Amino acid sequence: MDDSRRIASLEDVPDETTLLFRVRKRGRLASKREAKLETESETKTEAEIGEESGDEETKEAILVRLDGDVAGWLNYCQHLTHIQLDKGTGATMRDGEIICENHGAYFESDSGLCTFGPCEGAYLNSIDVTVDGGSVFLTDEEYEYVGRGGIETDGLDRTSTSNIEF
Ligand code: FES
Asked: Is any ligand 1 atom within 6 A of the Cβ of residue 102?
């Protein structure tokens, strides 16, 4: 496995919430990388160059622990797709489902299916990840791994509080 695509150790993925990380579409990074490498040291990783470029195409994603495995999803509700499920401290979960606190949508951790709420029947966007040797790696060919944690909060509504009671 490619160490530059290692997200976390399996132990770091919590049981009852989510682990937040960042990805970026590959094609876009590749063109930025080529431009950067013309003037900068080739010893930098793609992730380092991507971080410096402040690429607005960076997206948040989450890892969810399944029974003996891990699933990866983009961190956006399917009701209002700018709303994060994990706002930086782990998404709320109940009985193996990820809950969007804005309007109470429930998503199955393993399939991404919304089983209840305003986007019932919709699916979260998946990110391919694999567990290998006790670590979780990004294996999705569409994305580069950028880093752990969320995107800086400028302009994003992370303060939005729950409209429902749990
Ligand atoms: S924004 Fe997620 S349920 Fe409405």
From this structure: yes
